[in-house]
Design brief:
Blueprint: H1 3-12, E1 16-17, H2 18-25, H3 29-41, E2 45-48, E3 60-65, E4 73-74, E5 83-84, H4 94-105, H5 121-129
Antiparallel strand pairs: 1-3, 2-3, 4-5
Length: about 130
């Protein structure tokens, strides 16, 4: 089994750090990064969930699209059945990403899912505290 196959096998089980992938494949950090780069050119969508810090950093990788096992991802918003595009790394569709951003900006717990959000953050805060 080559490095790319090991990486895909690991990422199918869930998010992995660069160190975990290095240990599973018994290769260097550079070999992991090169294999991920080659996989993306083959149509596999793998994203690094940690912001780039420059130099060698501990990345946390997630498999978003596997051409060998395509699955439809659905928006995580309660009641929404919109299929997400493979290029959308978010858990939410375009309509609900803005709603989540408003909730986070209002200082609310992002796990609260409301079927309809008020337009302003003040109305949002009032409507959630009056429950």
């Amino acid at each position: 089994m080559n490095t790319a196959e090991i990486i895909i096998q690991e990422l199918r089980q869930g998010e992995r750090t660069t160190s975990e992938l290095m240990e599973a494949a018994s290769v260097t950090r550079n070999a992991i990064l090169c294999a991920i780069s080659k996989m993306t050119r083959r149509g596999v969508v793998v994203v690094n969930l940690t912001p780039p810090l420059g130099g060698h950093h501990e990345g946390r990788w997630q498999l978003l699209h596997d051409p060998e096992r395509p699955t439809a991802r659905i928006c995580a918003w309660l009641g929404c059945s919109t299929r997400l595009n493979r290029y959308n790394p978010s858990q939410f569709c375009l309509n609900h990403r803005a709603g989540m951003a408003r909730m986070v900006a209002a200082g609310l717990d992002a796990r609260i899912k409301c079927p309809g959000l008020p337009e302003s953050s003040e109305q949002l805060a009032i409507s959630t505290t009056s429950r």
